[in-house]
Amino acid sequence: MSLHNQPKKKLGYLDDDTLNYYRRVSETLQNGFQDDDEKDLFMNNALEQLSQEALKVSQNQTGSRIAESLIKEAQPRHVCQVFTALGQDWNTATTDRFASHVLQALIHMIPRQWSTSENSADEVFISLYDYVTENLDSLVRDTYSSHILRELLESLGGVSVSELIIHRQVSKHNVKGIELKHQEEKKLEVPNKFKKKFRKLVKQIFKICNYDDDLRDVNYNTVLQTGLLVLHQVEPPLCAKLCNKIIKKGDLLLGDLETENKIKLPELVQDKTGSYLVEQIIAVTSPGELEHIYSSVFKGRLLYFAVDKIANYVLQKLISCISDKTLFTDIFDELSPFMEDMLAFNHLGVITKLAEACLRVGTRQERLIKVLMESFHCAEPADRQVEFVKLLASLTTYDVFFCQDKEKEKESEEKTKPLLTRINLHGSLLIQHLLHFGKPKLVVTSLLQLKPVELKTLSCDQMGSHIVDAYFQSQSVGERHRELMVDKLKGSFFEVACSRNGSRTLEAIWKCIPTKQKCVIAEELSLQEDRLRSDQYGCFIHRNFAISHFKHRRSDWQGLQGASTKKRKIFKDLFDDSDGQASKQGKKNTDSKGNVTETETTSLQLQDHEEVTNTAVDFLLNSMSKKLEESSTKHKKSFDKKQSKRQKEVPNPETRTFKSSCGKHKHKDMKKKKIKEKAE
């Protein structure tokens, strides 16, 4: 075969034997090992082989994935071999599409060995650091090497912040749960020599930054976010200093944009990538500095932020981070007159964040309800106020929902009122927040005015079901109003129980109502027990509510439900005591350190404690109901067995009487016959 006909070997090409070897290594890892000695021997052999061809294997897509899984399972002493092998060509290792992932996994493992006596990889690590600092200008803007740089910052800082980086829409919604996760993680101890290198690297990144363009660059932006997040936990004063530097050089200040009495928004907050960095600055800023940012960047132009399709997310972040009552009052008073304008632009996230902040800070709650009613045109006349929940849930004004045109006014009066059939996500979130307000009387009254069909729709809807949950879980809703809601749902419990979302809602209702109301629900469900048991979702309600016990052993069932209510209260009181101490401690930390995230963490911990309480009680209830079911089944079997035994041993009374009577008559006839014979 001539040379020009031979197939060219692609970058990262591995022959079949090598590829099959690493595939077998991957299978062995997945299957597991009998003991640690066997695993240690296997890892030594596999990593020794990998170190001989590390760069070649890492450039292959399949090989890089297997190498990553090997490194994640390796001990610190195993890392040095592969790390040294990749160090022969840092340029390829940092910029290659697949090899960069392997190097990233190795850097992640380095801090683990700092807590041990094995420091054999320090020299290679310093060699990588020197290469990065020399070529920082090109690496920080590269797609693959920027990830290496971010991992290097995390390792040198001793914290993990990769999941807190805001670079896509999904991360915005999940950032709260991620914050709690990382608050619980322990910081790794970093040697002093590496702390100095971390400071030097961060300062160099901000020094070479071109603030006109790099803040909008996808790769540079995420590196800056990583640096700020690590500094926020390691060295807060330097973090605050660099945040102020970005605000000034990024043209975010009010004075830079006010020309000829016209207010413009900064270009950075209108850019999709640049706005992520501004959000991160708000997230890592202390309450005192946050007030300064508000007065210098946001004050007087909140409406422009609210109606912009990208900048409104920055405003949402600001509202969600505020804990000071005075500052929030200023923001609310500036935005509230333009509530209908924000609805017209369909930027509902800002309104939802305002409702959430009203609940968290504890102010402007009644004012928000009044403004929302005016925005949906149901504040006046007073008879329209009962339709508030219906309009808010569907996010439509009164005129649109009820077709109130001047020409068609007479026709609409003759027709029946339209029913609530569609629930909006943001409408559901708003109603949930309003129900937890201190005085939600108007919202509660409006909910109770819904027809049973609409309440059933609400309970079975993916978004609407959470409204019913909030209604029963809110401490501001009294027992009487909960009973009225249960009465309104009568006749619909079976259909709700057999719905995917409704069954979950019914379980949430069950946890919040007394035994008397539980009997009402169980009575209705027991009428169709067979259909409920055979339904895909209803079977869980049948089991968790112990409907068969209610039907056959009602007194025991009521005793069990009463005991479960007492246990739930005991668990709640225990967690409330611990949560009270935690909330006090959280407030102290906020005042002394000026850290917003600790307050958010405390509120998340309270929610977690409630979930733990419900889970613990549900576990006890399920175990008790299972035991009761087993005992009842056992009792029933023994009873049936005894009954069948009695039927076999004891003859029929009628037959026994007939036999005895026949025997008596026969005995008399024999006596008469003998007497006659003697007489003859």
How would you describe this protein?
The chain has helices spanning 16-31, 36-52, 54-58, 61-73, 76-86, 90-95, 99-114, 122-134, 136-139, 145-157, 169-184, 192-207, 218-234, 236-249, 267-270, 272-283, 287-298, 302-307, 311-321, 325-335, 339-344, 348-361, 365-375, 388-394, 398-401, 409-414, 425-435, 441-448, 452-460, 465-473, 479-488, 493-497, 500-512, 515-526, 529-534, 538-544, 547-552, 554-593, 596-649, 653-679. It is mostly helical. Among the domains are: 258-375; 394-545, Leucine-rich Repeat Variant (Alpha Horseshoe); 562-639. The longest helix has 54 residues, at 596-649. The protein starts with 15 loop residues before the first helix and ends with a helix.
Mean pLDDT: 80
Oligomer: single chain
- Morphology call: flat
CATH-assigned homologous superfamily of the domain at 394-545: Leucine-rich Repeat Variant
Kindly, what is the distance between the CA atoms of the first and last residues, rounded to a whole number of angstroms?
Answer: 139 Å
Number of strands: 0
CATH architecture of the domain at 394-545: Alpha Horseshoe
What's the CATH class label of the domain at 394-545? Mainly Alpha
Secondary-structure topology with pairs:
Elements: H1 16-31, H2 36-52, H3 54-58, H4 61-73, H5 76-86, H6 90-95, H7 99-114, H8 122-134, H9 136-139, H10 145-157, H11 169-184, H12 192-207, H13 218-234, H14 236-249, H15 267-270, H16 272-283, H17 287-298, H18 302-307, H19 311-321, H20 325-335, H21 339-344, H22 348-361, H23 365-375, H24 388-394, H25 398-401, H26 409-414, H27 425-435, H28 441-448, H29 452-460, H30 465-473, H31 479-488, H32 493-497, H33 500-512, H34 515-526, H35 529-534, H36 538-544, H37 547-552, H38 554-593, H39 596-649, H40 653-679
